Each structure stands twice: as C-alpha cells, then as structure tokens.
C-alpha cells in the first residue's frame, strides 16, 4: 500500500510538471522586435554588439522619443487563457543609472485572442524598477481573470520610464510560463515560424 501511494505521488508530480507551457525568446533570429506598442515608443530594433546584449548575440532596443508618458513595448502575447490560469514572465533589462531614470519594469494588460490591440484592462505588474546595476532580471506572476468571459489573452509589457530626449532601452531573454497546456505563447517573428495575424494592420508574429 505504501508503494502504491508513493507511485501515485510520483505520477501526480509528473502530471503537474508536464502540464505547464513555457517558452523563451532572446531576439537571436536577428529579425524579431516587438508585437506592438503604446505611447511614444519608436524604432524597435533587433541589435547586436557593440550595443548591450545580455546573452547570445542579439537583443532588443526600443527608444522613447519624445519623452512623454509611459511608453509600452508589447513583448509577448499569451492567448487562449481561462479563469485561474497562472502566467509567470520575466525579462532582462539594461539599466546603468542607479536610483534614477531611465528605468524599466514588467507589466501586463488584458486583451482578446483575436486582436492584440483590443485593450481590455490593466493586469498590473511588478512595482519594482530596474536598479541601475547593468543587466537585471525582472519578473512577475499573474492569475488570469476573464472578467466573465469577456477576455482570454494577456500581453506582457516592457514599460519605459523617463530619460533624456530621446532615450534608448535594451531588453533581452524573455521567459513566459503558463499553467495552461493549451494556451499559445507568442513572441516576435522568427524565420522558421511565421504566422500572419491582424494587429490593427498586418504583422508577422511568432507562434509557439
């Protein structure tokens, strides 16, 4: 009986582990940038050395110009979510200005799976900013709320906080994990996996 209970425990652990859905993106394709943006964000660019890169050979550069409000870079889109699904996301942000702007932080908002531009409310995020030590990982976890079935997707944002005019920000190595085994985790396009979707126009996305 003890052996049987132990086997059940092992099976339960295995089922829990394999039910997760995770993916990462590091801009290594040399092509992808962002899925969209809000505010005064311009020139999203896939860059390499001598510009800052956290790992590998590539990273994302976005620019705030002119400095005004809180621009948002849409870094990942998780679709097909339902009430109670958990989502954990993190990325590495580059910041060499300790205790002052410019800084980055991770945030999210709700949308629908058919249109990333369909804003359905803020999902909040991490109130901590990058601290100015160089490359730093920042992350947060969400429990999905469909608001009575009116929304079924979440957009992970990199938020930009005031620098000089203009200001460059660097982001690398985003990781997204959701408890939903059927949700889609979407990043920017890779040459090997392109999906044509509507983003208020036509854009290329990477679908897991």
Description of the molecule:
The strands form two sheets. Strands 2, 5, 7, 8, 10, 12, 13 and 14 form an eight-stranded antiparallel β-sheet that branches. Strands 1, 3, 4, 6, 9 and 11 form a six-stranded antiparallel β-sheet that branches. The protein has one domain: Sandwich (Jelly Rolls). 37% of the residues are buried. It has one helix at residues 2-18; strands at 21-25, 36-38, 41-48, 58-64, 72-79, 86-95, 103-111, 122-125, 134-143, 153-161, 167-178, 184-187, 195-198, 202-207. The termini are far apart. The protein has 208 residues and is mostly beta strands. It has one helix and 14 strands, in the order αββββββββββββββ. β13 and β14 (202-207) form a beta hairpin. It is globular. Helices cover 8% and strands 48% of the residues.
Entry summary:
Helix content is 8%, strand content 48%. It is mainly β. The protein is globular and about 45 Å long.
List its salient traits:
208 residues; mainly beta; Jelly Rolls; eight-stranded antiparallel sheet; six-stranded antiparallel sheet; 1 helix; 14 strands; globular; disordered N terminus; disordered C terminus
Shape: globular
Q: How many separate domains make up the residues?
A: 1
Distance between the termini: 42 Å
CATH class: Mainly Beta
Unreliable spans are: 1-18, 190-208
For this structure, the CATH topology is Jelly Rolls
CATH homolog superfamily = Galactose-binding domain-like
Q: What share of the residues lie within helices?
A: under 10%
Strand content: over 45%
Helix and strand sequence = HEEEEEEEEEEEEEE
Q: Compute the CA-based radius of gyration.
A: 18 Å
Number of helices: 1
Q: List how many beta strands DSSP finds.
A: 14
**CATH structural architecture:** Sandwich
Class from secondary-structure proportions: mainly beta
Largest sheet data: 8 strands, antiparallel
């Amino acid at each position: 009986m003890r052996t049987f209970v132990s086997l059940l425990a092992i099976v339960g652990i295995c089922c829990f582990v394999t039910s997760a859905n995770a993916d990462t993106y590091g801009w290594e394709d040399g092509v992808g940038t962002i899925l969209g943006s809000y505010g005064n964000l311009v020139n999203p660019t896939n860059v390499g050395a001598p510009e800052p890169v956290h790992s590998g050979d590539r990273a994302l550069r976005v620019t705030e110009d002119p400095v005004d409000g809180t621009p948002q870079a849409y870094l990942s889109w998780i679709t097909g979510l339902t009430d109670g699904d958990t989502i954990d996301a993190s990325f590495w942000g580059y910041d060499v200005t300790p205790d002052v702007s410019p800084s980055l932080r991770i945030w999210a908002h709700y949308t629908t799976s058919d249109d990333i531009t369909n804003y359905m409310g803020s999902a909040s995020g991490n109130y901590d900013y990058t601290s100015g030590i160089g490359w730093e990982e920042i992350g947060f976890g969400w429990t999905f709320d469909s608001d009575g079935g009116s929304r079924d997707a979440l957009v992970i944002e990199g938020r930009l906080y005031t620098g000089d005019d203009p200001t460059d920000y660097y982001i690398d190595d985003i990781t997204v994990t959701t408890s939903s085994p059927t949700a889609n985790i979407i990043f920017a396009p890779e040459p090997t996996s392109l999906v044509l979707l509507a983003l208020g126009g036509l854009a290329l996305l990477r679908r897991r």
